[in-house]
Design the sequence.
């Protein structure tokens, strides 16, 4: 059910959730998990009434907190990794582009099975737009999925690739910088306590020295870090990530990393002597976001520079106390590559397109909807087609945008379809958790990460 009025919402939470002194009491946990949470998340996303949306999101967030599902920063775990207090696993950062409520349930089921606690949900600046998922909606969907599956634990939510648009930055640096800062404020306010700043787009390889090449990058990253420290909630140290080489461009070198870090830290000190810096560094090692589609629509195999990834991770830990290096564009790698990341002490890998492909390529995905999406791509997105692309190559890249334009159609799949796709996703998440050596990390996360109950103002419609 999708509530279309605030009175309808209030009537349906009676005997399940009680609003008391600006917070909630859960009166019937079973009904909440069995039925009400479904109605709340659908209303939080698809209601035509903005008051219903905001109220449903608040109820989900506070119910999650009451059940032990709280938005957290991964900073203290990454500090422990940087200080060699814990090691041996790589944290996956997972971008969910579509049917997020159901996709997240597959992750939580896999995590519960193997007692996994070290995993991140993230969404990039570009994805927020084309999947039609603002931060508050994304957090609500993840929290609702945790409630539905009975998962109780830390929810690491991350802004991925909060990226400077190089063209817009050249035209108006202040306006583009402020747009990223506005997004950061929105994200942190929604519960994203992990933010990846990507100013690698302004690196100018035409400059004569690495320092000059990286100046715009380290300066912007330091400015954004300082701003985050100003607005982060009391008791929370937001985990901040930086990026050196733009993913899909030339591979990063150890020298570039050292020069970036030294100048980033020097610049950051101008904002305050004791400001906490970044916790990890994203580098380019040979991958491309989404993979490279071949003429038949399959994805080309890539060769990752594992040697560079290992060297930069080692220097990041030993010299700067970071958790290590981050590998982007990993979900389309061959399965045999994943167990290498923990062995070379990669701190984090980012995974997105592979899960999108599981959904679209599932045998149970309705053919009529797939045809409608592909027709939309062929009629509305022809400008994105590159010269020489086959039909399969062209469709592969922009089909990610179908998750936004056809969001309601996918959320309205029959229960059988949602269960089947969920099972396929769960199998892949279980595989990745195993290869990344994450079994049993729930106890490690519990030891190092202490949740903070950040106050969440009750919507005006629920105060009446």
Sequence:
């Amino acid at each position: 059910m999708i509530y279309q009025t605030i009175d309808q919402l209030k009537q349906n939470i009676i005997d399940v959730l009680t609003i008391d002194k600006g917070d909630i009491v859960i009166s019937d946990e079973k009904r909440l998990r069995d039925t009400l949470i479904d109605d709340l998340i659908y209303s939080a996303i698809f209601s035509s009434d903005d008051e219903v949306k905001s109220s449903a999101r608040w109820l989900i967030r506070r119910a999650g907190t009451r059940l032990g599902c709280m938005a957290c920063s991964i900073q203290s775990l990454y500090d422990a990794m940087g200080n060699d207090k814990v090691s041996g696993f790589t944290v996956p950062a997972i971008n969910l582009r579509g049917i997020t409520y159901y996709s997240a349930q597959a992750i939580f089921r896999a995590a519960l099975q193997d007692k996994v606690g070290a995993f991140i949900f993230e969404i990039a600046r570009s994805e927020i737009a084309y999947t039609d998922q603002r931060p508050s909606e994304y957090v609500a969907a993840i929290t609702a999925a945790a409630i539905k599956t009975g998962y109780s634990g830390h929810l690491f939510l991350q802004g991925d690739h909060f990226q400077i648009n190089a063209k817009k930055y050249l035209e108006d640096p202040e306006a583009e910088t402020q747009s990223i800062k506005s997004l950061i404020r929105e994200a942190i306010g929604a519960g994203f306590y992990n933010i990846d700043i990507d100013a690698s787009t302004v690196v100018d390889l035409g400059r004569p020295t690495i320092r000059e090449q990286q100046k715009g990058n380290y300066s912007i990253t330091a400015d954004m870090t300082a701003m985050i420290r100003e607005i982060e909630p009391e008791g929370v140290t937001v985990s901040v990530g930086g990026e050196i080489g733009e993913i899909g461009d030339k591979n990063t070198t150890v020298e570039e990393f050292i020069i970036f870090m030294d100048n980033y830290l020097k610049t950051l000190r101008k904002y305050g002597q004791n400001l906490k810096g970044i916790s990890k560094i994203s580098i380019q090692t040979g991958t491309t976001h989404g993979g490279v589609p071949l003429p038949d629509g399959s994805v080309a195999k890539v060769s990752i520079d594992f040697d560079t990834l290992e060297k930069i991770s080692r220097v990041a830990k030993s010299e700067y106390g970071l958790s290590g290096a981050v590998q982007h564009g990993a979900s389309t790698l061959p399965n045999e590559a994943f167990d290498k990341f923990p062995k070379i002490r990669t701190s984090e890998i980012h995974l997105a397109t592979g899960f999108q492909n599981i959904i679209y390529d599932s045998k149970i995905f309705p053919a009529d909807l797939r045809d409608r999406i592909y027709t939309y791509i062929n009629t509305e997105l022809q400008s994105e087609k590159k010269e020489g692309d086959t039909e399969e190559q062209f469709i592969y890249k922009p089909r990610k945008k179908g998750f936004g334009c056809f969001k309601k159609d996918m959320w309205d799949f029959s229960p059988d379809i949602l269960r089947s796709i969920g099972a396929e996703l769960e199998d892949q998440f279980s595989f990745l958790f195993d290869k990344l050596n994450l079994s049993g990390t729930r106890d490690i996360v519990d030891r190092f990460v202490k949740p903070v109950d950040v106050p969440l103002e009750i919507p005006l419609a629920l105060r009446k």
Summary: The chain has a mean pLDDT of 93. The longest helix spans residues 210-231.
